[in-house]
Every structure is written in structure tokens, then in C-alpha cells.
């Protein structure tokens, strides 16, 4: 579903190329493919004959790069691009990435997807010793740590900096000498490297972007791994050996494109498996299965396959998702939502409907859809969520940093059923989710991070720890209870 | 599929409101819902306290109305809007609709969907007697005829003008006194009227736009019908009694939204029926059925249902369809196409695929998709087209005015199969199409226009007749043969 | 002074080229030179290999032609351009000139400077017989008359049309066959023709624009003259022989550039002569002479020369005249005016100042300047106006169509002196003005139109006659009295 | 003359307000008044209820602040603004000022006019210890020094930082606590403080901007002085006592507005005095005196007064200075220059002309003007320059950092006369310049910096010293010789 409707937002997409004469054009195409990962702003740094040059701004890739000259000015054999979604308050131009740092000894571009759990304390410490930050994002901390490292080479400085930041991160850096990419020790955020027909290399957030530019996947960057790509080729090393895979499960549930593969698992197929498993765990008596377009169609297909209930097209999503002006009346505001999503009355009228959605965040959209279905004559609506209830914040790069707005953190299943106005409500189990994805690993939770469902975080929470404790107290929850 | 990929384009969407304080805002929402009918330009005329005022420009509705003040300047109790797709050469601002005519005795706004077959000869005659046209579109002819009519009232002048124009048309006019809407005598182009909760009226191209603004359908405007809406309410009359229903079948096949209903038939359900019928007429041995998103998903679902072959998600369409710059190399151009449509390799690899598309125009997109599927490892591709072969031009409002580029007009089925690289190829029959739509009427072809398939046009072609004759001669076709 | 401050506005500048490969670029330069004649909008029509093409919009020439491609699309061997100032209410895109009419038998571009006195009645008559106007400007009337003329050739149709319109006009028309230019029978509005080094021809409003593009003046287009420029060269003919020169005297007083020549008289020198004559007619005891920049500097120089009082720089006009936002308080609004014009305190403090201004329209600007001078310490301010009191409307192309706002129409000299807060006030006499300009002619008023000073109009006022009569009655004026 | 024509460019204008509810609107007006000091970019930081907020961009003030909301978002009781001209290469958005630094303990905005001679070495040292710069301008160095200062208060940190930077500078800083302004120890660059009717304070580059917003001058900020303005009022202190006045003489010659006063001397009157002195030092036999508009009109007036030769208007400068596109041919490029400046043929034809210009930088513009005058029929042209020959670079804030392009550094007076095509050529003497300005001081050169004329720099040149030595060697000049 569109970012405008749902409050769950990925914090970025990264795309870099080294060693291809069309590096900038390929990065432009790649960012289009990753546009679903961030719509607030975009930027590209190109390695031109005159050094690293940047073009960036607010809006979609097609808005930021509105004129051919915007790309031409960046042309060269290497480039790094970024699409950004930001949290409220951080909407300043200085936060649009890649950040570009110009030093007497050369420039460095930096792009990031994720969230650092100790960024605030690191920044406070750095500022106390005279550091000046140009952005308000956590990303910039890495560069200050790198520049203050006494190590003799850029790569060693970078390795030292990477060991000092905590949380979920996928960093990409571009200099005149090379393209560098690194994953956090849990591999929370996806990052892959591929090769172009020209022999050039691509580093990006999802394999779908590799495919879009005609590159072949070389590998998923591993937890704790640092990749260096220079004119001498690709070099890999571990900057830490304290790693344990914990891929963000919401990438499989909602964020990633269905045509991407994460650690060998196709996202669409994982979603079909979730839908199948959901049908087993939460069966329903119904005439048709309808998915919320577009992210829930795979799970709906799986539910239909496993349950034998016919898959149907019951909701139509507008192809032209437009930001609409604030409407003068409540009635107009509601119609504005309907403009984005409409019910196929002919399909649902008189039918018992299984409505499959990938997740519930605040519950408002689900409530509206249920209401639309009922108005269109659905006899009953059985809501099935292809993931467990979202009850805890994420600190590794998804924009849920408070439990206050989480529907499932504040209501029991019975309450949710009543509020949403559905005839029945069922969620996928955590175990079901883990089995459906089925990563090949011996790591806990089969290599997934399921903290937003269980409250069990794979790493210390650093600057957020106190805050989380207070919030949960406020909800009269405690971790032992919820995880029982 | 997106207009950028396919060469088949509808020539417009119309949306008007009378008698609601939020007429302009509703028209804005309505145009968003009709955006698929035209992306070249948009405009709204509002009935403000200072008279009719217009805002218009090139681009999507969200681009033309980029600032809240663009709408504010138009506010009032009535409005008329339009989205436009234009043919090459006509890309001048003066052609963006609604056209606005300012007379000493009041202003008139005019919006049109369709194509007039005698516009050129009427225009020549009018110019010879001193008329000056401000646009190069056929639409403006109506206003000149109206203004030269000696009849005493606006409605009578309009009626007289309507009897002079031929072809396919859905006109809407707004004055300070009323909102007027009329359909051609065959009802080629859809036009409906509905009512808002406020009591106000809406006239628009598709019922989905009624739903989007919370209006209830009153009726499809009938062939030869003229609707007048004033502060005294809605009045209907026939401007001619020589009518015979011949709805453009491509509205059902491709153009209209799945959640619209045309003369009582839901478009999605008509497409499912076409898919079902196609499975019967053109069966295939295969493992999965894949539809080309988004317009062919309904037909694919029908094919899967009737054939028993599982429906699968095999192609992913980018949510962010962006105009891309002209790419410097052929390889980049191809990647640019892949950015818009990608294959779900995990779904199709090793499978025998039934690929369902709604129609074939030039064949280039189908060829690319087939190639993508084969590259992704599809064992075989059986292409099934949910409509008959497009072999003749349309002169009633679809942008196919030449047979030269029509794939099926220039090649036999065997040749097409070879060129596309498919393992088998099958089209829906004309009879099958007519039965699938199933309009309740005794008109020929069950009330559909199927001229682009058969070459049998429901009306004289006027200014186009000679031209068509030449083209067919050129193709060594003649109508008797092709319709045998 | 800037158009933003003063309410006296010329209604346009015209610039056309025929027969030069850089016709469009030259027209662009020429319009920049004529920018002082209109800042609301601009446009150029170029004769491209694909026919006449237009680019136009609101704003300064540099804003309308903001990208090199805006000009490139128009390139060819002929062009016609226009800069426009419009009266309130007419601010619609359709009024930006050149108007471009596309006929089956070829396109015609039309640009105009002036005002037609019988446009309203002609338009009413034309509309009654079915004509449709695309703009609300009077200019378009000419084209309708031309197209309805039964004459066999374009030039004869144009001649017939020219005899039907009354008032002040300088028309330029561009077709694929030629560039045409015509003046009204009194020659109210200036229009000249010149020749480029390339042999090509230029038609434009002022000689300064000829100089700017390197063209030599051939001649001022005479009252009642029609110039036709084709590939066969320049042809001149009279479309009427009822002519009598009455050049708008405000062109000499205020509008035209100082480096332009009108009917052989340099504008700067005419202004110096006005200043000299003013010193004789209205002497003053003072220490310095200060002119209001920039239009009054020439007259101030003449006053200083004739009086022997030193010329000084007492007012500084901002080089960057910017439209400023509406300011929230009165104090801010006043400061906003001071930003555009400031006093050189060091020059005026303790001095008796002769302040020379070219004219007084509403009196508000003069009042502000006087106040600024007094605040800066001027001992006394003797205001001298280098033209007679403006008391009557103009109907030939200057934006004074009502006497209500004319300061001198509503107050005696004594009242004006008191309101403005000056120590003395003197105007140039009508005779003095006529002698200062000194056109070589036997026409009344030495070939000038002085109607805004005397109320004696050189032509019937047609559609405006009744209106003027009412206004004067309202002011308790009658023509015999004021001209006594 | 316009920045587009002449290569001499001031590097900025500064305007700040503390303690007025309309601080942002006043800053906007003030920047318009200072627009002549920089046209590349502009910015304003406002102290809003939500902290310091910034709006900035490339272009004129009217272009950067194109919508009312651009100002509204900054509203509050204090603001700091800047207009910038930059040297080639530095044209990146990050360099547009005020720079805004966001710290955990509060934000700081920084605006600067001048040039630091030891910025490069300071930056190298800071980067070596881990500092990261966001811009490439020298301005940012101050903030890094300030943040690394161990002093306990902001003001003490700022004082320490000010003693470490060398060269010419006028800094203004805004925090939530106050507005701060400081001048370099020589007072190279002007900076004044004034008071508004509201009691609020203004700090800005020129007194003309005080006048524009209705503020009264309190004082010129003295060499080595630091002004602190807080809610407790204005506080002044010396951050160093090693000061000696050396105001940039080019401020009097060319940069500053004629209505500004610097250290008690009105700029217009200083220019008139220069013109008078020039007439004494370099008399000419001639019929008229013509100044190059607009900056040389004051000196021309002085020359006319002292010589008794009549002052005349001989050159007209276009009011609408527009950036023009690169023209396809040399002829068009030349016409493009003429568009900006044209000769009043009627004034100069047949006359012996004294042409007064304020300075000669590269000589190209002067050459063009002389040619225009000769073409217009001037019998002879006697060029008089109201300043001494520019032969040495400036390192204190004027954009002449190389002697290679300086006309007078590369040619003798005789050669210059021949190249320019004038009948005689004369410059003002250094002594004449110093006496004409006549600052009340016992400092060397009567308190002026005349280094660009003499090569004697008032301070060590730090990072530029080696470079200058090489350049002079290259020109076969040495300081002892040129100053002999």
C-alpha cells in the first residue's frame, strides 16, 4: 500500500555503481526501481572528471532529476544514489543523501539505510570535542568516526568506524578510489552486490534493482562484512566476527519488492508461503479471498491456494497515487482515500470475503477497507493478517519508534475485531512466519528479526533502552508477559 | 499497461458537477480517478462568483494542480474538468480542455471525449465563412455550429449542433445556467450521470469516478440523449431518434477501470468472462497462468478459473511509472523498459506459462515480455489474447487511425507466433467477445462496436472514408475478404 | 519610474523580423530592449520548417524564455514578438500576444500596440453573426474582420479590415508568406521599419530596438500606411488617405526610451527641451535640480541647463526592481517603496530643491518622494512637471480610461500643491510641450495628440463617447470650460 | 555597471535584525537593498518558535524568495540574511549563506563578507584533527575554531576564534540568544549597526539598507570590534587592540551604493570629489562629459562641475538586465552587449566626449563603449578613470586574485590608450583618491586600503604570499619598481 496511507515506512534505498561508463544512468534506473523504499528525497553523486559531483532534492526520483542536464553533470565511471524516507522534523535539504564530504585530500559520498542505536550518544561525544554536523541524521556519525580514526588507510579507518556504530545499517561509500559497502553484524537491512555485463559492479538494497539494470547477483553482503570495490576488483573482509543473522522480517512481509531475493529466498514466494500457512492457522468459511493491493496479493494467492477458496480481485488501487491537498471537509477527506483504493462491488456483493492484509500498523486503513467492503454488500469480512501482531517499536531502520500508535500493542484481538468491524480476525504466528520464510540458517528465529512481534531485541538498544522501558510501563506491558 | 509502453490510447475523460458547494474539489478528485483516460493535459473550469474561470496545463492532474491556490481560484457550485490524451502534432496548450469560450452574453466551457468523423469538412466549411478556431482539435466545431444556429435558446442551439456532428462523442458543457451532457447516436463513448449526497449532480466518463466522489449512478446517458442540469433539476431529451447502441468494445477490453460499469455490465466481470471464454476457445497445456499487469489480470483470472491451471503472479509492474529521459545506448533503453515491468523469476522458471494479454497493438511490448519470460527460464510461453485481432483503424475516439502499425493487420497468426517467439498464440473470437460482455440489447453485435476487428463500421466514415479505402488497398485487404 | 509605482502604462511593444537566419534570436534581443513597454507577458511566434510555432507566457521576457529550448523550438527565417501590459481583469493567458490563428489555409500571427475605440461594438456585431473570440482583447477583432472580408488576397482583406477599426493602433502580422505592419490614420502609436546587415527587415515599436539588433532605420511607418515585407522585398501602400499626424505626446514625455527617435525627433533631446522650456515657464529659486530617475533625468538636465541651477543626483533608484509580497503592516509597505527609491541625504540636506518629474498621474508617488526629500532635510521642494496636467482619459492605447484617479482632474494647482506638501508647483504648458518636441509638420498641435491635457480628441470616441460624457459630468467639468 | 559585464565583484552583503516582530520581513527588504553586493545566491535564517529555520538558494533575492510561504516559515523576532557572489568553482548550494549549524546545545547561523588570508592553512590543520566541513567557503573556518575553543561562553569562544582568522572580514552570527557582529582589525569591509523605531537592532553591510528599513545609524563597527546584541541590549568590546583602519577603497570607487555612508563619508559625494580631482589632474578639451551608468555618474558630475564642460546623458543602461543565453554567432553576442548599454547618438554625434568610468579591470567593456561612441559619431573620446590603475590582486574580499587579467598590470598607459582606441587616457592618482574620500583619521593612506594600486598590503598575506610573489615575477614586476 502507499506510504501516504500506511504509517510503516522503510528508511531508504541505496544504489551504487563502479566501473561502468554509464554508471550515472544505471544508478538513475536503479533508484527508480528502489523508489518504493523512500519517496521524500533522492540524490546521486557521480565521479566526474572534475571530482565527485552531486545532484539532490526533495521528491520522487523523476522530480529530482527532472531535466537531462541533471544527470549529465554527474557523468562518469562510478556513482552512488539514494532514495530517502524521513521521520517528521528531519525534513531539511541537508538530510537528503548521499551526503557529500569534501576534504582537502579528496571527497567522500555516503549513503545509508538503517538506524543506529547509539547515534545520539556518539554525536554528543563528538560535538563535545568540536565536531560540526551538517545534517541531523544519524548517518553522518560514521564519517566523523572515520575521519578521527588514527588508522593509516581509508579502509582501516572505515573498519574502525564500523565497529563503533550499533544498530541496523547498510552503508555505501564512494570515493575517487573506490566503492565501499558494509552491513551491520546482524544483517538487519538487506544489501547485495552484483556484476554488470561490462564487468562493472553494483551495490544495492534489493536484487530487483540488479535485474533492472541487467546485473547478475554475486552475493548478499553478510553480517559484519565490508566490501571494497576498486579498479583492482572486488575485495571482501569481515570488520567483526561477532555476527548473527537477524534479517528484518518486515522486508519479507511488506517492504521489499516481490521480485527481490533476500539471502536466497524470493520475497513473493515467501509471501505465498505465509498466506498458505495463514490459511492453515486461521481458516475461514468464505466465498472469495481478496488481497489488499499491491503488497498483500501474494499472501492472498497463498491463502486461496491452501484453502481452496477462489482468489478474486476485490479492491482496485489507483495507478496514479497523488499527493492530494488537505481537504476542507471530513467528507472530502474520506473521498480522497477512496480515490486511492476502491472496491469492486460486482465481485464482493453478497459474498463472504476473506480479506488478506500483510500487516496492521495503526488499524485505520484496515478499518476503512472493511467499511468499503461492507458498503459494497459483502455478507461478511474475515480479516487475515499474514504476519503476527506488531506490538513493539523497531530501532533498526523501520519507522516505528513508539508503541503508542501500534494498534495491536493497545488492543486485544477481541477488541481489534470489534473496532475494525470484522466478522473474524486472525494473525499468522511468529513460528509460522519463520517457517514460511525458511532461511537456511541455524541462527535464532531462523535468521529473522521478529522483535516488533516479541519484544526480544537481538542487540542492546543503547540510546533507546530507557525510552522503551518507559513506554512499555505506560502500556502496562512487560516483556516477560507478552512473550509468554 | 502504461500509455508509455502501449500505443493504444483513449482520448479523454470528462467530469462535471452542478449544485454542490465543493464542485471544484469533487471535480479534482474525479479527474484523479479518470487519470488513466489521458495523461497529456488536464483542466478544470469553475463557476466562480466572478464567472467561469479556468486552470489548465500539460501533465498529470497532480502536476497541473500543483498548488492549493490553483483550485481555490475556481471555487464555486459548479465545475467541469477534463483529462486529455492527444495525438502527435496536436500538443499545443490551446488544445487542453475544457475549452473556454467567453461571449458578451456569457461564457461556455466545453469538454469532449471521442472523435468526430466529419470535423474536417465542417471546419473547412466554417472557416470559409469566416470562423476562427482557437484549437486544432475537432471538439471546437460543436461550439461554432452552436453559435451559428438561429434557434432561440441555448439548448435548442446545442441540439441543432449535435445533429450536425458525426462519429463518436461524449460532450459536456458548462454555462452559468447549467451543465449539459450528450452522447452520440451509437453511444460509442461512455458517459454517465449520478447524484451526490448533497443533491448535486455529476456527469462523468465512468462510474468509478461517481463512486470515488460518493455519488450514486442515476443512469448511463443513452445514444442520442441530451441531459440538461440546472437549478431546476435534471432534464433529459433525445436530440435524435436514429440511434443504435454500439459501445466501443475496447472500453471493456482495455480502457475502462475494472470497477466501472458500462450499461449495467461490470468491466472486471466482463474481462473475467472473456478470460473464461478464451480458455474454452484457445486451451493450452501449461503449469501457470500469468496476466500482464494491470489491465489483463482479470482476464488471466478468468482463464485460470475456466482452465483449472493455477493463477500466478509472474510479472511485476512498477508502482512509480516515470517518464525516463532518452537513453544514450540501446542497452540502456532496454533496461529502461525492464524498469517498468519485471519478471518474477521464482514463479516462472521451469514452468509452462499461459501469458494472458488484453490485446495486441504493435506487438513490440508482447515480444519484450515473452523474451523476459524466456530469459527467466519459462519452459514454454503460450500467449492468449483476450480480444480478437486488431486489424482496422478506429475513427470514434481511439488513437488507431492507421492500419500500418497494427501487428495483426500486417501478419497472419502463424507469422505473429514466429515474430513474438511464443510456443502458441490464440485470440478470442468476435462472437466470444460479444457473448462475454453480454449487454442486454437487441442491437447488432450485442450493442458493441467491433469495427477494429471486422472492418464493419456502424456509421459512414465521412472525412476518413477515402483514406481508409487507400490504406486497405495498400495492405492488399478488402473488407469482403477479411470479414468472410 | 517603474511600472510598479506609477499607474501610467503603455500597452505593448512589437518586434518582428523577416529574412534573417537568426530572426528568432534577434526578436528575443529586440523584446528585451522593448521590455519597458510591457512586463505582464511576452511571446514570440517563429516561422519554423514545420510552420508557425509559438512560445508565450506571463512575466518578463527573461522569465518567459527561461530555457534555450524555448527559443530553439521557434527557429527560422522570420519571427514576430510582443511584450504586453494589460489592464486589470484581462489577465488570462489567451490575451498574451502574438495571437496565433491556425487555419486550414495557413497560420497567421498577430501583435498589436494600441487601443481600438470601436472594438466593443465590432465584437458584438461579429459575435451576433457566430464569431467566436479566443481572447478578451480588442486585438482579435482585426482578424475576424480580415477573415470575413470577401476580398481575394490577404493584403486586400487586411486593408479592408484596417479601414473598419478605429482608434490608436500599430499592428504587425506574420504569415508564411510575409510580415505586415500598419499604423492608424493618426499615427498615435509609434512603429518603424529598418534593415539588418543581412538584408533582412525589422518592424518594431521603437528605433532603440533597431539599434540594439544592429539594424538601420528605413522609416517611421506613416499614418494610414501598410507595409508588406515578403521575399520579394518591402512594399508600402496607403490603406486610407484620411490621415493626420497626432503622435501620442506621452511617448515623448514618459514612455519611449531616451535613445529612440520618433518621426525624426530624439526622445532624450525632446525631454531636455521640455526641461529647458519648463525652466523658462516655471522658474524657481533653488540650490539644486533633482530629477526623478530614470525617466525624468533628461528633463531635469534641461531645467538645470536653462536655469543655471546645478544638476545633482538626489534620488537613487534600485537596479533590482522586484515585485515584493504584500506586506503585513503599513509601515512595512512604506519601507517597501523606499527600497525602490531612496534619497541621497548628503546631496539634499539643507538645500532648496527643484524636483523635476515627467508627469503626475495619481500623485501618490510624487507625494512620497516629496516626503522623503523633506525627511532628508531639504529646505524647500519646488516640484516642476515637464508636461501639462493630465486631466482626461486616453482611448488610444495608454492605460488611463477614467478621470477618477487622475490627480489633476480632481484638484486645482493650489490644492495639488497643498496635498503634495511642496513649496511651489508648476507644469509645462501645452504650447511649450508642442514646441519642445518640435515635429516637422503642419498638423494641429504640431503633430501631437494632447487630448489627455485638453480633452480635445483627434477622432470620434465611438464606444467610449457616452462613458466619457458621464465621467466629465460627474466631475462637473465640461470640455468648453477646461479648454477655455 | 552590471556584474555580467564587469569582472569586479564584491563578495557579499549581510543583514541581520534582533528584537523586532517583523525581523524576517525587514531582512527581506534589506537584502533587496544590498542585492548589488551579490547576485549568485541568497538566504535568510529566522528565529522561529521552533528554533532557527533557513530558506536559501541560487539567484536573486526575488527568485530565492518567490512565494510568500518562503518568508512565513521563518517568521520571528530575529533574523540573519545574506546575498552572495562566488568565485568560479564554488557554485554549490552548500556555500550559500547564512550557513546554519545545528548543535545539540542550540543552532548558530553564520554570514560573512570578506576573505580570510589564512583560511586554507587553518582548514588543513582542522581537517587533520578530524574536522568535517560542509561548505568549500572560507567562512566555515570560524565556526570550527569557535567550537573547539575551550572558553566557557559563546562570546569568549567567538573572540578567541576571531583572533585566529586573518584578512578582511565582516562576520554576523545569530543564535537563539543573540545577534553578533565583528569586523577585522583593519576594517577592510564595511559593517554598521543601527536601531529601528521598534527599538530593535539592525546589523548590515551598508547604511543604505538601514535607511531602507527605517533604521537610524548607531555607528560603523570599528576595526577589531565585536558587537553583541541580546534582549539585554547592545554590548560592544574589542577582541583585539592591534587595529589600524584600512577601508577598502573600491567600496568608495565602485561597490557601495551612492546613498551609503562609510565612516561618515557619503559615497556619492566621495565620487563627485574624485571626479573633481580627476578634472584637475587630467583635464581634457571636450564638448561634453559622459559617465558610464550607473556607478560612474557621480564622478562624471564632479568632472563636469570642476571642468565646466557640460554634463550630458550619453549612454543608456537597460533597466531590465537579463542573463541572456549563449548566442550562436559573434554578431549576436555583440548585439547582446548592446542590449544592455546603448549610446545616445543624438547627444554624442559630432562631439568631443570626456568619458568617465570608475575603474578599468579587464578593459573589454571600456573598449566596447569607446567603439559604440565612435560609431555614433563622437569626434573624439577622452577616457578618464576616477581611480588609479588596478595592478595588484586583492585578498580581502574583492574577486581579483590574479594579476593576469588586470589590464593595467599588463600594459603601459600608452598601450592601453592604443588598445582602447581613445584619444587620451588619464587616471586619478592614489593621493588624489585618498584626498577625495577624505576619511577623518591619521592612519596610513588616510585610512584606505590602496593595495590593488600600489602592491603595499596592510597585513601579511599568509596563504597567498608565495602565490603573489610568483605572479609578480611572471609579469617582470617587482614591488619596489612599481611603487617607485
TrEMBL record, chains A, B, C, D:
It catalyses: 5-phospho-beta-D-ribosylamine + L-glutamate + diphosphate = 5-phospho-alpha-D-ribose 1-diphosphate + L-glutamine + H2O. Mg(2+) binds at residues 295, 357-358. Its cofactor is Mg(2+). Binds 1 Mg(2+) ion per subunit. Pathway: Purine metabolism; IMP biosynthesis via de novo pathway; N(1)-(5-phospho-D-ribosyl)glycinamide from 5-phospho-alpha-D-ribose 1-diphosphate: step 1/2. The keyword Magnesium applies. Pfam families: GATase_7, Pribosyltran. It is an enzyme of class 2 (transferase). The keyword Amino-acid biosynthesis does not apply. The active site is at residue 12. It comes from the Bacteria. Its EC number is 2.4.2.14. In the C-terminal section; belongs to the purine/pyrimidine phosphoribosyltransferase family. This is Amidophosphoribosyltransferase. The lineage of its organism: Bacteria, Bacillati, Bacillota, Bacilli, Lactobacillales. The gene is purF.
